[in-house]
């Protein structure tokens, strides 16, 4: 019988359970396992959106710039800093993740003259590779981007990375948690290895911020970027954040200069002079409405505490792996995520030859919302703020049923634009 008494007991003992009610939910029977791609809507975000539109924009109009709008990138950034082990003045909300990655990668390479190698791995998010390829081209193809292969599509090529480091490496760019497998890098060990070779490291935190503890300052990491619409629950297309360690900020120059990064923007001087500190990495006018809506989700995470969130995440992914071994492996599902909790973020990937069609059966017929990543990965996102043990057990039963009852065969092989 699904769920069992074990799942019911785990949910009853969950100290984070009260936070679940603080998210917008119209279908209580929907099992949402895609918070690693788009987080749920915090209930207070709806009221804040109305207040932002009707009062701050509608009534206060342009006066709102001096009543809190202008400082939003720093204020929200300082809160995110508390989730990623950074100082308040080291994190800024601006632009999209790819734009921030471009800014920081180009700025870092300009600080490393004579070094020509850029290292990454094939577990990294593809758009990060696209950005790096564009940076290499923009700099006249004087650099070489090297994509190190994972040994199995799950584990990162850590040993190969360490062996490949030399005094020609300028920059290493890695996803802290791999988007497909959920592999979690040891940030401290990798950062130390990269820096011992004289190179800089740039971490993409998109799949780790809000789901695993991050210690940028303690590990002395150089640079980082990340999105806000996954575990931070900031909303679709919400602006991203960037981190620059405090002692590097005056060395780096924003390659996309703009009004908001100018020292005195309302002097309207014709020559660009960057602002001191992190604010120089602003470019255009921030998207105030979407930026402000990041804050309620961040506040919920801060209230819960990253230690409690990580503890529940590990419990839930361990339980999910046990359920997979008993109920799903016999039906052709393979585990595409690390077995060791210390090497795993907060989502699991299950492979199946019919992964795409199973995914469609789950969404269209079985009221489960995971997502799919080619070639055959079904990703199950565990968001400890609102995912229950009961939901995980029921999702496993429906994954089993999709194959055992042949439900997947009702759906075409043709994929939708968004998977």
Summarize the structure.
The chain has helices at residues 5-12, 43-57, 72-83, 97-110, 126-138, 158-164, 187-196, 288-292, 295-304, 306-328, 355-364, 389-404, and strands at 31-32, 91-93, 117-121, 144-148, 169-175, 200-204, 223-226, 241-244, 334-335, 347-351, 368-369, 371-373, 377-381. The chain is an alpha/beta fold and 419 residues long.
Explain the layout of strands and helices:
Layout: H1 5-12, E1 31-32, H2 43-57, H3 72-83, E2 91-93, H4 97-110, E3 117-121, H5 126-138, E4 144-148, H6 158-164, E5 169-175, H7 187-196, E6 200-204, E7 223-226, E8 241-244, H8 288-292, H9 295-304, H10 306-328, E9 334-335, E10 347-351, H11 355-364, E11 368-369, E12 371-373, E13 377-381, H12 389-404
Parallel strand pairs: 1-11, 3-4, 3-5, 5-6, 6-7
Antiparallel strand pairs: 2-8, 7-8, 9-10, 10-13, 12-13
Helix pairs in contact: 3-9, 4-5, 10-12
Kindly describe this structure.
This protein has 419 residues and is α/β, with parallel strands linked by helices. It has 2 domains: 5-32 and 305-410, Aspartate Aminotransferase, domain 1 (Alpha-Beta Complex), CATH 3.90.1150; 47-302, 3-Layer(aba) Sandwich (Aspartate Aminotransferase, domain 2). The protein has helices spanning 5-12, 43-57, 72-83, 97-110, 126-138, 158-164, 187-196, 288-292, 295-304, 306-328, 355-364, 389-404; strands spanning 31-32, 91-93, 117-121, 144-148, 169-175, 200-204, 223-226, 241-244, 334-335, 347-351, 368-369, 371-373, 377-381. The strands form 3 sheets. It has a 7-stranded mixed β-sheet with strand order 2-8-7-6-5-3-4. Helix 3 (72-83) runs parallel beside helix 9 (295-304) and helix 4 (97-110) packs across helix 5. The mean pLDDT is 96.
């Amino acid at each position: 019988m699904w769920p069992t008494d074990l799942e019911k007991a785990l949910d009853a003992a969950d100290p984070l359970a009260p936070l679940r009610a603080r998210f917008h939910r119209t279908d209580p029977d929907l099992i949402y396992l895609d918070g690693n791609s788009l987080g749920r809507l915090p209930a207070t975000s709806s009221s804040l959106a109305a207040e932002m539109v009707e009062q701050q924009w509608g009534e206060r109009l342009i006066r709102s710039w001096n009543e809190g709008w202008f400082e939003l990138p720093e204020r929200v950034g300082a809160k995110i800093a508390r989730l990623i082990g950074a100082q308040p003045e080291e994190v800024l909300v601006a632009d999209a993740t790819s734009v921030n990655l471009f800014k920081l990668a180009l700025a870092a390479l300009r600080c490393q003259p004579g070094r020509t190698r850029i290292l990454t791995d094939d577990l990294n998010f593809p758009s990060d590779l696209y950005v790096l390829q564009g940076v290499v081209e923009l700099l006249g193809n004087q650099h070489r981007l090297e994509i190190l292969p994972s040994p199995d599509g799950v584990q990162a090529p850590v040993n190969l990375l360490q062996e490949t480091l030399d005094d020609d490496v300028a920059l290493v760019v890695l996803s802290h948690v791999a988007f497909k497998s959920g592999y979690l890098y040891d940030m401290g060990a990798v950062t130390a290895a990269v820096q011992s070779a004289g190179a800089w490291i740039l971490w993409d935190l998109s799949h780790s911020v809000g789901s695993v503890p991050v210690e940028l300052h303690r590990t002395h990491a150089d640079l980082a970027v990340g999105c806000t619409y996954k575990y931070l629950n900031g909303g679709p297309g919400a602006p991203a954040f960037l981190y620059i360690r405090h002692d590097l900020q005056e060395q780096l120059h924003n390659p996309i200069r703009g009004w908001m990064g100018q020292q005195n923007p309302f002097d309207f001087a014709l020559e660009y002079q960057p602002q001191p500190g992190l604010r120089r990495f602003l470019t255009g006018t921030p998207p105030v409405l979407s930026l402000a809506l990041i804050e309620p989700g961040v506040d919920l995470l801060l209230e819960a505490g990253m230690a409690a969130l990580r503890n529940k995440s590990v419990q839930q992914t361990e339980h999910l792996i046990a359920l997979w071994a008993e109920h799903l492996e016999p039906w052709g599902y393979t585990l595409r995520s690390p077995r060791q909790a210390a090497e795993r973020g907060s989502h699991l990937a299950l492979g199946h030859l019919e992964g795409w069609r199973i995914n469609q059966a789950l969404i269209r017929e079985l009221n489960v919302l995971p997502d799919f990543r080619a070639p055959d990965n079904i990703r199950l996102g565990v968001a400890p703020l609102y995912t229950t043990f009961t939901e995980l057990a029921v999702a496993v039963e429906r994954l089993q049923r999709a194959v055992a009852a042949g439900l997947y065969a009702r759906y075409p092989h043709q994929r939708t634009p968004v998977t």
